[in-house]
Amino acid sequence: MLGMLDWLIQEIDAADMQGDLMRLMLLRHAKAEKAESGTPDRDRRLNGRGRKDSAQIAAYMAQHGLLPDRILVSPAARTRETWEHMVSAFSPAPPVAYEDRLYEAGPEAITAVIKDAGRSASALLVIGHNPGLYDTARLLLAHRGGAAHQLENELPTAGLIVIDFAGNDWRELAPGSGRLKLFATPRLIKADKE
Q: Where along the chain do its domains lie?
């Protein structure tokens, strides 16, 4: 029996775009320690749940063929650590770049970072922060009907949004040009298994 997330992947795969395809995977960092007085926000690390959720979302991605060609990561400790707990699920590990512009970035800055990838990868994974990633996803989606209604509230920690685009050059990325492939969270994955 197909779970809810597997059904969504299968449904959308049947209607995939023809020709060149670019896949953007937006991942919010996993659950981090609470901010403490005197500790810079950039230095916040993952808590136990965050480390577990990072590995779980990576395993899910690998199991479902959501394999990035290139990784772009915010330089914050919690985003770097999210990737460190994911990397073992991907073999070989794709190239990773730590991009300062992703920290505390809005959709315009995030989109600029993605566009800078040019033709270097057909599948990009961006690990960053809210509200920037959430706002970027909403900006890039062609419509938010159907399964995209799940994005009406927020992007939780370790939440993954996969968006497909026609084309082969990230420099041509435009608002409203993407189609939701998948929205997954550790909580949805767990519920899907039960």
A: 19-32+42-193
Joined tokens for residue 70: 């290139």
CA dist 32 and 35 (Å) reads 9
If we measure between CA atoms, which residue out of 33, 12, 121, 141 comes closest to residue 71? 121
In degrees rounded to 5, what are phi and psi of residue 26?
Answer: -105, 120
CATH code for residues 19-32+42-193: 3.40.50.1240
Question: Which residue bears the tokens 């040009």?
Answer: 177
- The string of pLDDT tens digits covering residues 85-117 is 999 999 999 999 999 999 999 999 999 999 999
Closest CA to 58 of 69, 67, 49: 67
Residues 6+ positions from 37 with CB-CB distance below 8 Å: none
Do 161 and 110 meet the contact criterion of CB atoms below 8 Å apart?
Answer: no
Q: Whose structure tokens read 């770097």?
A: 80
Residue type, 22: M
Angle at the Cα of 78 (from 163 to 162), degrees rounded to 5?
A: 5
pTM for the complete prediction? 0.88
d(CA 121, CA 146): 28
